[in-house]
Amino acid sequence: DIQMTQSPSSVSASVGDRVTITCRASHNVTKWLAWYQQKPGKAPQLLIYSVSSLQTGVPSRFSGSGSGTDFTLTISSLQPEDFATYYCQQANTFPITFGQGTRLEIK
Amino acid sequence: QVQLQESGPGLVKPSQTLSLTCTVSGGSVGSGSFYWSWIRQPAGKGLEWIGRVYTSGSTHYNPSLKSRVTISMDTSNNQVSLTLTSVTAADTAVYYCARENIQLWFPFDYWGQGTLVTVSS
User: Fold this and answer.
1) Contact A95 B100 (CB under 8 A)
2) Over the Cα atoms of chain B, what is R_g?
3) Does B49 touch chain A (CB under 8 A)?
4) Of B34, B41, B67, B105, which to mutate for an interface test with A (greatest number of A Cβ within 10 Å)?
């Protein structure tokens, strides 16, 4: 299985801050990398697909970058509604796997 | 607007079979543009992909569950089903169905709201 390792596991930040979350894959996943946001009691929601493509309706303060095994999700200016848990996911190789999650908390 | 709705028993006894159904509205499960997956999440933990089905009937399963899982599609009722046999407490989780979009490099672009299944006697 491809292991997806996110860092940090949790981060505290303030409204208006810029935040970067990192996802490292144990093997090359090429462009088959997506990011999700999950709020308590809700299903995950797609933010970014194919490494850097913004899903329809997602605010432009979210962006993704990277290649191969190293990827980042950046939130340029945190808004109150962005405090949630974020997951990366690879679809390059079966089984499909997710990172362990990064919890973004209010400072 | 595509909507996915999971349904099934919320309580299953150990060693028995878990059966869930995902009913899709606003789109066809028979469309060749999508796979239909099941994903689960134990309380307070991360996401685990269980497996998926395509309109052709082809399936892919997580090897960690493969011996116990069956995912199927009912195009006449626009539903996708999950069967997990010989359940234990470790199978207690929120179970989600999700659409995997082939045209977007296979992310899960629509999810159901999830259904909690507890395995307990």
Assistant:
1) no
2) 14
3) yes
4) B105
What is residue A107's predicted lDDT score, i.e. its pLDDT? 87
Angle at alpha carbon of residue B70, lines to B68 and B74, rounded to 5°: 165
Residue B45: per-residue pLDDT: 97
- For B89-108, write each residue's pLDDT tens digit: 999 999 999 999 998 889 99
Count Cα neighbours of B37 within 13 Å in the Cβ-side half-sphere: 28
| CA distances for B16 relative to B22, B85, B118, angstroms | 20, 6, 12
| Residue A56, φ and ψ in degrees, nearest 5 | -55, 130
User: Which pLDDT tens digit goes with each residue over A51-90?
Assistant: 999 999 999 999 999 999 999 999 999 999 999 999 999 9
Using the Cβ of A94 and the Cβ atoms of chain B, whether some distance falls under 8 Å is answered with yes
